[in-house]
Amino acid sequence: MKVIISPSVLSADFGNLQRDIEMLNSSEAEWLHIDVMDGAFVPNISFGFPVLSAVRKHTSKVCDVHLMIVEPQRYIQAFRDAGADIITVHYEAVTHLDSVIHQIKNSGAKAGVALNPATPVSVLKDVIQLIDVVLIMSVNPGFGGQKFIPYAVNKVKECKNMILQSNSSAVIEVDGGVGLNNAAELITAGADVLVAGNAVFSTANPVETIHQLVHSVK
Ligand code: DX5
Ligand code: ZN
Questions:
Q1: DSSP class per residue in 134-164
Q2: Average of per-residue pLDDT values in the chain
Q3: Domain CATH for 87
Q4: Could you say which of 38, 64, 175, 192 is catalytic?
Protein backbone atom coordinates (compact mmCIF):
# COMPACT_ATOMS: atom_id res chain seq x y z
CA MET A 1 0.00 0.00 0.00
CA LYS A 2 1.30 3.36 -1.00
CA VAL A 3 1.79 6.11 1.57
CA ILE A 4 3.22 9.60 1.26
CA ILE A 5 5.60 10.74 3.99
CA SER A 6 5.64 14.43 4.88
CA PRO A 7 8.60 15.06 7.23
CA SER A 8 7.96 17.98 9.56
CA VAL A 9 10.51 20.74 9.06
CA LEU A 10 9.69 21.92 12.62
CA SER A 11 12.03 19.19 13.85
CA ALA A 12 14.89 20.23 11.53
CA ASP A 13 18.05 22.01 12.68
CA PHE A 14 17.31 25.65 11.79
CA GLY A 15 20.98 26.52 11.95
CA ASN A 16 21.49 24.04 9.13
CA LEU A 17 18.18 24.30 7.35
CA GLN A 18 19.58 24.05 3.82
CA ARG A 19 21.53 20.92 4.78
CA ASP A 20 18.41 19.32 6.29
CA ILE A 21 16.24 20.21 3.27
CA GLU A 22 18.86 18.72 0.94
CA MET A 23 18.89 15.59 3.09
CA LEU A 24 15.07 15.36 2.72
CA ASN A 25 15.43 15.97 -1.04
CA SER A 26 17.54 12.81 -1.24
CA SER A 27 14.86 10.79 0.60
CA GLU A 28 11.66 9.07 -0.54
CA ALA A 29 9.53 11.74 1.15
CA GLU A 30 7.17 13.28 -1.43
CA TRP A 31 5.95 16.20 0.69
CA LEU A 32 7.58 18.52 3.23
CA HIS A 33 5.37 19.56 6.15
CA ILE A 34 5.70 23.19 7.20
CA ASP A 35 4.14 24.07 10.58
CA VAL A 36 3.22 27.73 10.99
CA MET A 37 2.26 28.71 14.57
CA ASP A 38 1.21 32.14 15.78
CA GLY A 39 1.20 31.92 19.60
CA ALA A 40 -2.56 32.58 19.56
CA PHE A 41 -4.26 29.56 17.98
CA VAL A 42 -1.60 27.38 19.62
CA PRO A 43 0.65 28.10 22.62
CA ASN A 44 3.82 28.24 20.53
CA ILE A 45 5.37 30.38 17.79
CA SER A 46 7.33 28.71 15.00
CA PHE A 47 8.07 30.60 11.77
CA GLY A 48 6.40 32.26 8.80
CA PHE A 49 7.00 33.50 5.26
CA PRO A 50 10.81 33.92 5.21
CA VAL A 51 11.41 30.35 6.36
CA LEU A 52 8.86 28.95 3.89
CA SER A 53 10.51 30.94 1.06
CA ALA A 54 13.91 29.60 2.11
CA VAL A 55 12.64 26.01 2.12
CA ARG A 56 10.95 26.55 -1.26
CA LYS A 57 14.22 27.80 -2.73
CA HIS A 58 15.95 24.51 -1.90
CA THR A 59 13.29 21.92 -2.76
CA SER A 60 10.96 20.84 -5.51
CA LYS A 61 9.02 18.54 -3.17
CA VAL A 62 5.41 19.41 -2.40
CA CYS A 63 5.34 22.15 0.26
CA ASP A 64 2.56 21.11 2.62
CA VAL A 65 1.82 24.16 4.79
CA HIS A 66 -0.12 23.61 8.03
CA LEU A 67 -1.44 26.91 9.38
CA MET A 68 -1.99 26.83 13.15
CA ILE A 69 -2.99 30.48 13.20
CA VAL A 70 -6.09 32.55 13.87
CA GLU A 71 -7.73 34.32 10.92
CA PRO A 72 -5.81 32.30 8.29
CA GLN A 73 -7.96 33.89 5.54
CA ARG A 74 -5.83 37.02 5.90
CA TYR A 75 -2.67 35.25 4.73
CA ILE A 76 -3.66 32.70 2.06
CA GLN A 77 -2.20 34.54 -0.95
CA ALA A 78 0.96 35.42 0.99
CA PHE A 79 1.61 31.75 1.82
CA ARG A 80 0.92 30.79 -1.78
CA ASP A 81 3.37 33.46 -2.97
CA ALA A 82 5.97 32.21 -0.47
CA GLY A 83 5.79 28.75 -2.07
CA ALA A 84 2.94 26.70 -0.57
CA ASP A 85 1.55 23.92 -2.79
CA ILE A 86 -1.01 22.83 -0.19
CA ILE A 87 -2.50 25.22 2.37
CA THR A 88 -4.24 23.64 5.34
CA VAL A 89 -6.32 25.72 7.73
CA HIS A 90 -7.85 24.59 11.02
CA TYR A 91 -11.60 24.03 11.12
CA GLU A 92 -11.51 25.56 14.62
CA ALA A 93 -9.79 28.75 13.44
CA VAL A 94 -12.21 29.63 10.64
CA THR A 95 -15.76 31.02 10.72
CA HIS A 96 -16.54 30.83 6.99
CA LEU A 97 -14.89 27.57 6.00
CA ASP A 98 -16.55 27.23 2.57
CA SER A 99 -15.26 30.62 1.57
CA VAL A 100 -11.70 30.01 2.85
CA ILE A 101 -11.54 26.70 0.93
CA HIS A 102 -12.44 28.59 -2.26
CA GLN A 103 -9.94 31.31 -1.43
CA ILE A 104 -7.18 28.68 -1.16
CA LYS A 105 -8.18 27.05 -4.45
CA ASN A 106 -8.36 30.40 -6.22
CA SER A 107 -4.82 31.14 -5.05
CA GLY A 108 -3.69 28.08 -7.04
CA ALA A 109 -2.91 25.92 -4.00
CA LYS A 110 -4.62 22.70 -2.92
CA ALA A 111 -6.95 23.11 0.04
CA GLY A 112 -6.61 21.22 3.31
CA VAL A 113 -8.69 21.34 6.48
CA ALA A 114 -7.23 20.22 9.83
CA LEU A 115 -9.22 18.85 12.76
CA ASN A 116 -8.02 19.04 16.36
CA PRO A 117 -8.26 15.75 18.27
CA ALA A 118 -11.56 16.73 19.94
CA THR A 119 -13.24 17.87 16.70
CA PRO A 120 -15.34 15.12 15.10
CA VAL A 121 -14.81 14.16 11.46
CA SER A 122 -18.55 14.66 10.82
CA VAL A 123 -18.17 18.48 10.76
CA LEU A 124 -16.65 18.10 7.28
CA LYS A 125 -19.61 16.21 5.80
CA ASP A 126 -20.89 19.09 3.67
CA VAL A 127 -17.52 20.29 2.37
CA ILE A 128 -15.69 17.00 1.90
CA GLN A 129 -16.09 17.19 -1.91
CA LEU A 130 -14.42 20.60 -1.99
CA ILE A 131 -11.35 19.54 0.00
CA ASP A 132 -8.07 18.09 -1.30
CA VAL A 133 -6.65 17.10 2.10
CA VAL A 134 -8.17 16.27 5.49
CA LEU A 135 -5.52 16.60 8.18
CA ILE A 136 -6.38 14.60 11.29
CA MET A 137 -4.39 15.80 14.29
CA SER A 138 -3.24 12.98 16.52
CA VAL A 139 -1.78 15.36 19.14
CA ASN A 140 -3.01 18.72 20.37
CA PRO A 141 -1.24 21.09 17.98
CA GLY A 142 1.62 23.29 19.17
CA PHE A 143 4.70 21.16 19.60
CA GLY A 144 6.66 18.38 17.95
CA GLY A 145 7.59 15.23 19.84
CA GLN A 146 4.25 14.64 21.62
CA LYS A 147 2.59 11.31 22.30
CA PHE A 148 0.15 9.90 19.74
CA ILE A 149 -3.53 10.02 20.77
CA PRO A 150 -4.88 6.51 19.96
CA TYR A 151 -8.50 7.49 19.17
CA ALA A 152 -7.20 9.26 16.06
CA VAL A 153 -7.11 5.83 14.39
CA ASN A 154 -10.91 5.59 14.53
CA LYS A 155 -11.20 9.11 13.15
CA VAL A 156 -9.10 8.04 10.16
CA LYS A 157 -11.49 5.11 9.55
CA GLU A 158 -14.54 7.37 9.84
CA CYS A 159 -13.01 9.89 7.50
CA LYS A 160 -12.16 7.19 4.96
CA ASN A 161 -15.79 6.03 5.01
CA MET A 162 -17.04 9.57 4.56
CA ILE A 163 -14.74 10.07 1.58
CA LEU A 164 -15.77 6.79 -0.06
CA GLN A 165 -19.46 7.52 0.46
CA SER A 166 -19.27 11.00 -1.01
CA ASN A 167 -17.05 10.24 -4.02
CA SER A 168 -14.61 12.84 -2.73
CA SER A 169 -11.00 12.67 -3.91
CA ALA A 170 -9.62 14.05 -0.63
CA VAL A 171 -6.58 12.37 0.88
CA ILE A 172 -6.22 11.75 4.61
CA GLU A 173 -3.12 13.07 6.37
CA VAL A 174 -2.28 12.24 9.99
CA ASP A 175 -0.14 14.57 12.07
CA GLY A 176 1.40 14.14 15.52
CA GLY A 177 3.28 11.35 17.24
CA VAL A 178 3.46 9.27 14.07
CA GLY A 179 6.37 6.84 13.65
CA LEU A 180 7.39 3.31 12.81
CA ASN A 181 5.36 1.98 15.75
CA ASN A 182 1.97 3.16 14.43
CA ALA A 183 2.45 3.86 10.69
CA ALA A 184 1.11 0.47 9.54
CA GLU A 185 -2.02 0.75 11.68
CA LEU A 186 -2.74 4.24 10.32
CA ILE A 187 -2.21 3.21 6.69
CA THR A 188 -4.48 0.20 7.15
CA ALA A 189 -7.11 2.50 8.69
CA GLY A 190 -7.05 4.67 5.57
CA ALA A 191 -4.27 7.24 5.97
CA ASP A 192 -2.70 8.39 2.68
CA VAL A 193 -0.12 10.81 4.09
CA LEU A 194 1.85 10.58 7.35
CA VAL A 195 3.57 13.59 8.91
CA ALA A 196 6.66 12.67 10.91
CA GLY A 197 8.87 15.10 12.79
CA ASN A 198 10.54 13.61 15.80
CA ALA A 199 10.33 10.06 14.40
CA VAL A 200 12.48 11.11 11.44
CA PHE A 201 14.83 13.73 12.82
CA SER A 202 15.68 12.00 16.11
CA THR A 203 17.07 8.96 14.29
CA ALA A 204 20.68 8.49 13.24
CA ASN A 205 19.68 7.97 9.61
CA PRO A 206 16.54 9.99 8.73
CA VAL A 207 16.66 8.97 5.04
CA GLU A 208 16.54 5.30 6.05
CA THR A 209 13.73 5.98 8.56
CA ILE A 210 11.71 7.66 5.81
CA HIS A 211 12.36 4.60 3.60
CA GLN A 212 11.05 2.34 6.36
CA LEU A 213 7.96 4.53 6.87
CA VAL A 214 7.20 4.51 3.13
CA HIS A 215 7.37 0.72 3.13
CA SER A 216 5.67 0.06 6.47
CA VAL A 217 2.83 -1.79 4.71
CA LYS A 218 3.78 -3.93 1.73
C1 DX5 B 1 2.23 19.75 15.89
C2 DX5 B 1 2.60 19.89 14.43
C3 DX5 B 1 3.20 18.68 13.88
C4 DX5 B 1 4.53 18.31 14.47
C5 DX5 B 1 4.68 16.82 14.34
O6 DX5 B 1 1.55 20.86 16.30
O7 DX5 B 1 1.46 20.20 13.65
O8 DX5 B 1 3.29 18.74 12.46
O9 DX5 B 1 5.61 18.95 13.84
O10 DX5 B 1 5.79 16.43 15.03
P11 DX5 B 1 5.97 14.95 15.62
O12 DX5 B 1 5.96 14.03 14.45
O13 DX5 B 1 7.28 15.04 16.32
O14 DX5 B 1 4.80 14.71 16.56
ZN1 ZN C 1 1.61 19.95 11.43
A1: EEEESS-TT-SSPPP-TTHHHHHHHHHHHHH
A2: 98
A3: 3.20.20.70
A4: 175
